[in-house]
Amino acid sequence: MNILIFILVAYGMTGILVYGKIFEGFREKCIVLKCAQCTGFWVGVLLWLLNIGTELFTFDYSLVTGFMLGCLASGTSYILNMLVSDDGLRARWKLQNKV
Question: What predicted TM-score, i.e. pTM, was given to this entire model?
């Protein structure tokens, strides 16, 4: 359950940073905030550092764990951003005729 909550929090925070109107001016100056995958990594590392202050999820404080959680947040934020938009699910399935 820790991982699922972590993924959802990372996805939400990444979405706010990359697409939220509140950060429009800041995004112009910071190239990292234009990419959900890049931002997701740093959000994951930030959440790992902040996990001492919450009971939603708890992880140990080894650097390997921090790196792996950054990678997890990056990958899942990217995948979820590719699957979901403001209009709902993005379904672009191509049916190919195989001969």
Answer: 0.84
